[in-house]
């Protein structure tokens, strides 16, 4: 039986492992930490009974993709839940905007900008299942849905600051700016709208769901699927070089590019090793998990029903903060992304004490303490918030990297989302997963299509490995393809 080793148990490493095991390979996953899951770990970080997601909390791209359809993790207990409002963006004096899964409902609440919002995101949402078939792969391929991809790319390729000019009101501009800021890029740069267009469209096509019982449930279900196929996960195993691994025909590295170069060493061709070391990481995150009694008293009422809240102020304020962190400067008012997953999944709370997961965008490797800046931003839009805090858990950029070495300098999206690296990551190659040596592959979020607990980096990398082995990579008769659309109600 062909043997495969996967180094790292993040969502992409586990997706690669399941994909290989489904084709009959004997798969072992090795994880350095005591708990598998990578960016999908969850824990009681503040108080007993209050469950927090340690990194990834919402998963709009995990519902309807090739890996999700093939693995069908619902058979292993994974259940998705949706908040009433997918994301919200409060402004000063109780103003703000919000995105419902329904485009028309969102448009009605945007008043003068509603028609334009519907004209942009309505067609994008209708085409999204076909569009994701193409953009969740490496960029260098023949598109199956050329015109739909081109329509999406027309918006995604522009600077976010230019796309924002489609709307006239501060509310609609801020609503788009909040999702665009997920890219950790200056909003005036080429393709800085790509992440915002993708996530904004996904909110209307699928919603921004959470995994019932915490994001750890994604890892738990994927591991159950792997074990059902005869695979296994071993924790507490540190891999520093290929010499630490048993013999295997396939080795998948769910690591950052530089770490892959260190592990593989001289097995890599010099050009590949140089390409991996040229890969650039982006700004970092500073995370504070709160236990909040009674929830957050947002002045903008719709934010009280939103799973995600972008805490940043106007589009111009967001743009200024994102420019500063990319220049190595800590903003006085940083962009803060805040998760209220308990609204969709009440079992994460302990009575009236609720988990809030927040992080600020900060410069790479930021050594300061952003706790006060995060709390001030929330208090700005929710007076009385501080009085409700009954527990905190703080993680700096260094602590994030210490817990997950893929988060270099606190870079939780595993690589700068520059226009070049969005298209050609981690290096210029027809096969970005192959490391240029027989049986060696990279499967982390540093590969296409990038960050997110969707598993597609691992799935694509596994297919590359199977092709190199000469294996059949089409779905077997036992594979079940998931639905093309998902009802968020």
Automatic annotation (TrEMBL):
Query: Record's Gene3D superfamilies?
Result: FAD/NAD(P)-binding domain (3.50.50.60)
Matching entries from Pfam families are given as:
NAD_binding_8
InterPro entries xrefs = FAD/NAD-bd_sf
Domain of life from the UniProt record? Bacteria
Question: What is the protein's name according to its record?
Answer: NAD(P)/FAD-dependent oxidoreductase
Q: Which organism is it from?
A: Brevibacterium daeguense
